[in-house]
C-alpha cells in the first residue's frame, strides 16, 4: 500500500507539468487543500481538483518546458514526502497575488531557464491527495531567472507588466 501512496503523490506532482483536468479529478480529493496557495491566483485557492489544476495552469502559463524530476519519496502512514527538482523556462509574465487575491507582483519573461529543488509533503486519503504543503527554493529560482538582484530596467518592466495585468483584469 505504501508504494501506491507514493505513486499517487508522484503522479500528482508530474501532473502539474502536463496533466489534464481528468488527471486531477482522479488524483486529488474533492476536499483537498493546497497550503502553498498564498501567492497563487484566486482560482487556485479553492479546494479539490479545480484548485490544483488552476495552480498547474498558472505555472504552465509562465514557464515553458515545465518539468519535475523526482529524487526521493518516503511514505509514513498517510503522509508522503517527496524531494524533487522543478525546472522550466520563463516565457510569459509570472503573476503573484496578495492575501486578498489582488495582483501583488508581475515578473516579465526573461527567457531564462531554472532548476530548483523542492520538498513536497502530502496527506493521502482514499487513494487521493487530501493535503499539500511544500518548501521551495524560491530565492534560487529568482536568482536563476534574473529577478534578483533586480536591475533598474527590470524594475521598470515589472511596474509596466503589473499595470498591464491589472488592466486586463479590469477590462
SSE layout and pairing:
Elements: H1 2-18, H2 21-27, E1 28-34, H3 49-62, E2 63-76, E3 79-90, E4 94-97, E5 103-107, E6 113-125, E7 128-136, H4 138-145, H5 152-170
Helix pairs in contact: 1-3, 2-3
Could you characterize what this model shows?
This protein has 171 residues and is of the alpha+beta class. Helix content is 38%, strand content 37%. The chain contains five helices and seven strands. It has helices at residues 2-18, 21-27, 49-62, 138-145, 152-170, and strands at 28-34, 63-76, 79-90, 94-97, 103-107, 113-125, 128-136. The strands form two sheets. It has a five-stranded mixed sheet. Strands 4-5 form a two-stranded antiparallel sheet. Helix 1 crosses helix 3. The longest helix is centred in the C-terminal third of the chain and has 19 residues, at 152-170. It is globular and about 50 Å long. 26% of the residues are buried. The model has no long low-confidence stretch (mean pLDDT 95).
Please give a handful of descriptors for the protein shown.
about 170 residues, 5-stranded mixed sheet, 5 helices
Could you name the ranges where pLDDT drops below 50 across 5 or more consecutive residues?
none
Q: Given the helix and strand composition, which structural class is it?
A: alpha+beta
Q: What global shape is seen?
A: globular
The strand order across the widest sheet is 1-7-6-3-2
Give a concise summary.
This protein is an alpha+beta fold and 171 residues long. The chain has helices at residues 2-18, 21-27, 49-62, 138-145, 152-170; strands at 28-34, 63-76, 79-90, 94-97, 103-107, 113-125, 128-136.
